[in-house]
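Entry 14. Ran structure prediction on the chain below.
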Amino acid sequence: MNAQTKQYLYALLNWADEIEEKVKSNQRNTNLPLVKSKLANWRNHIQKYITNNQSITQQDLEQIQNNGREMIEEILLERGNKQILDGVPIGEHKLPPLPYDYDALEPVISEEIMRLHHDVHHQSYVDGLNKAEQMIDKWSESQNSQMLRHWMREQSFNGSGHFLHTIFWNNMSPRGGGKPSGELAEHINEVFGDFNRFKKLFTNAAKSVQGTGWAMLVWELRSGRVAIQSIEKHNMYALWDVIPLLVLDVWEHAYYLQYKTDRAKYIDNWWRVVNWRDVQNRFNKAKNVTWTFA
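Output, structure tokens:
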């Protein structure tokens, strides 16, 4: 095991300690023994690799990450403890780390693009959102409607950019590709006829975006089913009352250094890294959120 991997595993152990402290400090939590048990099992699994200096594959690392993510989501979100994890204070959003190495998606997406896209472009949206939130707070009691309007627009653009990119990174995996399975696959077949028809419509939606934007598979809360929607920039022509499940960035910075002007080739290749497990997890949660159908 190399030093970088070992350092990352130690960071995961520290993260587990922080989660347990948050759980302990929450007086409304009634599942503390269960939480501690799950965290202990996860810790022990990681500690075994460290203690034995055991080699670990990328697949093993992804499994540890997925197990940790699923454990936290199950314990802290689905069991009614939504307030255990702290919210993000105004103007304090942070750039989330990539769930894989910068070169992990090659040859579909190059390391150079991933570094620029994540470290520069995504960071700029985080910075822009923080600035907008701070300025909205500053101008909230002012009569200057022009300034408030400006910063509300900045919040919409940068906030949407930040949140969509956060989904985008997790929607991809070096072990991605193929087709969805389980309930998601059944639902896609029910709505679109079959996976190939869905894939064709999603691909065409992405290719049809004028200028910069996104293609999305979303859960429509008012219809209780999935749908496909294209977005210009990060926030124009958006469909409301939906939960994004799968998103594809078709801004030039997502592909230009590698694919030049061939957006279509980038879109076609992107399917090889789609992380259907992440999409399935999002679908499983989204389908339980329903409003009165309309």
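The longest strand covers residues 213-220. Will compare against last week's run tomorrow.
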